[in-house]
Amino acid sequence: MKKRCYLAILAALFFFIIAPDVSGVKAATDKNHPGFRVEGRFLYDNQGEKVTLYGLNKMCTWTDKDGDPAFKEIAKTGANVVRITWSIDDTAEDLDTVLTNCRKEHMIPVIEVHDGTGKWDMLPKLVDYWTKEDIAAVLIRHQEYLILNIGNEVGDGTITNAQFTEDYSEAILRIRKAGIHVPLMIDGSSWGQDINILQACGPDLIQVDPDKNILLSVHMWWPAMYGHNAQEVIDELNESVEMNLPVVVGEFGNQWETNKQGQIPYKTIMEQCAKLDIGYIAWSWGPGNNPQDFLDMTADGTYETLNDYGTEICLTSEYSVKNLSVRPASMLTNLPPKMPSKGLPAGNLALGKPVTETSMESADYAGKYITDGNLTTRWASTSTSPAYVTIDLGAKKELKQVIIVWEAAYASQYKIQVSDDNKDWKDAYTTYSCKGGTDTIDIEASGRYVRINCMQRKNYEWGNSIFEVGVYGPESELSADINPTVAVFDKNPALRADLTIETAPKANTLLAIKNGKTTLIKGADYTVDGDVITISKNYLCTLMTGETANLVFDYDENVDPVLAIAIGDTSPVTAISPASATFNKYPAAQDDVSFTINAADFNITAIKAGTASLTADKDYVVNGNVVTIKKAFLANLPVGANEITVLFTDETQASFIVNAVFTAPNSLITPANAAFEKRAQADLIIDMALYGNTLEAIVNGSAALTEGTDYTVDGSAVTISKAYLATLPVGSETLTFQFNQGNDAVLKIKVTETIPNSKLKDKMVPFDATTGEDAKVSVQWNGNTIKTIQFGKIELKEGTDFEVDEDAIVFANSFLATLETSKSELTFVFSEGENQTLILKNTSAAVPDLTLTSSIGSWATGFTGSFTVTNTSDEAVEDWTVKIKKDGFKITNIWCADVEETDDYYVITPMTWNSNLSAGAFTSFGFQGEGALADDFEYVVE
User: Residue limits of the F5/8 type C domain (predicted)?
Assistant: First the structure.
């Protein structure tokens, strides 16, 4: 084997040589790894399950910012990851929503900001965004399943390795200091395309990270027009694997421009990622690519509009997202319920009271929402003046305080007014400098009606908007209170628990607990023990998952407190794999479709296609965990995406997408590539998968082959005659199989006429001319004959200088005596095939002294080090070798030299540029290996 000499990076290489193999590591949660973690070149979840990312990019910041319905549609492909395009202008609230919606669909969110694309000076600003208090809080909230891509394609092609390492090191440390401990994904520079900078700097960045939790992302926008090709993809990904780097292909498409030079080797990217266990995230679900709309996989973001490019990437390729992606068990649960926003203090006289408004933006922003006790709903007026809301307290009340929770569209100037009759109004409070947020205003007033009169808007493009209004007086202090006022309930059987509420009834008596129009049953739905009320988990299980129940504690006097309970269910979902399949309605191509239910224990109550129920045994069968939908039922589905829903006894359900098409199937041939050697002729046998079609002809260009002579057909097997193949010229030939329906199939044949080389048994033969003996080298002729043997410019004479003795050539002692140097190189020219070389080594000649010194380092499974060869004589040495005797070790890599293996030795020879050692000169080469190389290893320098 040979290895190019990279002296400048030997030190870095030695680091990887001694790095242990951690491919089998099983991760576990700790304070710095609450979610996913990187070990070696692999990603693990917090349950220790290895996860390889296969999914899609989705541009959210410019289109559907909440990812709805795109995430639901992407989930149908079976993807386990979505890389989300984001902006530093997006809010923490929006970020929380988009991450939540992605996780709801059981896919891993990779969030990236696009503002730094190609702009190195933006990197600190991107980190500023991630470390903002509200943004960091959102990231930490989602840390169990989140990956943070610091910036999309930051930097152009001018960024040096030193810049890349220094600036990203600072970015990593700032993000960790902010308490963010998710995996950090780092794109290459040069608009993400530079994998070499990731290979050079990635190891240092991993070491800089206190969490050692780094992913390296290359964007393979590698079209032919920029000098790229499929072999480069293979080489670079394999090199990354050899370096044990945690590389992901974060973006790639099928083309950069719609011409031949714009083509990207995307099929090779997908195949190599699959074979090397490297994740890929394809660009992009769409729509939104402008002007390169050919990179949109869908027309409107729905699964039904997947185009040919999207279908191949997501579904039909052997290496598609559907065929590769596996969602880890940790993602196959629903999100826990989110704690409701805590309402205003108890005793709010306005709670639940009727409201009138001058205007509303829409029915979703009506005035009634300012007294519903929910801080996520609001009133919003139109962008006109005047604008006010009026609360009817039901009776005249003494008022001491008003609390207003404004939305961003607040009134910079407003009045609080009171009235007994909703006609005559008195000003209780006026401000000309409202700053928004929550205003708490002490007043001295009384009245039945309270009006918030918005006099001037903060922004004239907006209306006025209020989340909630609280009105308090002496009566408020008499109202009963409860603790807590917000709670969550998880229907997961392992986590279900009663809710215990402490009450402060004061002088009030509890009459009932109500949920809307439903009154809970005392003793069954809840129990009372003094001032402690327990809400039964059995009752809570009857509430709707995903909703927030507002339980009103109905006391006989004053304001009733409200308990807001968010209902969730983190029970593991029953997953189906694959997530989708294609069914061809073409009669000859119809086949059953199967999927696997990934659950140890399940019971199916029904399977539905839309509203139609399938009949067991007739339309489907269940065999263990495998469900098979029969083709007779599938044939009735309409063309397009059809959702098959599986319902289970535990009230969960799972979906499977059947993409129904109607196309004449293409016949396939195996193999599609073959070789024919003219000097070792043999028939070619090709297997056909006909799918109901028939073979009509085989053509080579415009010439049709003759059945029975050039080829024969036996069922689905075609035999192409070696007599026909022998007529083909050396090179690449294409035979086209033409069928009665569907596309033609193409067989590519590489025709060769390989002239076998003769071989010498030994590369070096020793002789001593003083003994009078001849020298012999054994020859494997392989059908050739010796044409001539050359010694420099001298041509040896057969019969005088050498003779041919069956399978050997014997050199006469008279010729050997003319050789004065220690080594003489002869060139053997045969009748055909390549020339061969032989070194005749004169053992009687004086040999310059060569010495070897070594530096060996070892670890548990191997060793590394360097050799130095020094010429201690007074004359130059033109050629030399080092022979190391084998003894329980293996040399696996070498730098600045070549190594060949014999039965007993490793034979190391210098590369051309350092083979000539002048007197006193020395040269060095590095190596690594497996096993243990002893300090007293045996070696010979020749």
Answer: 337-474
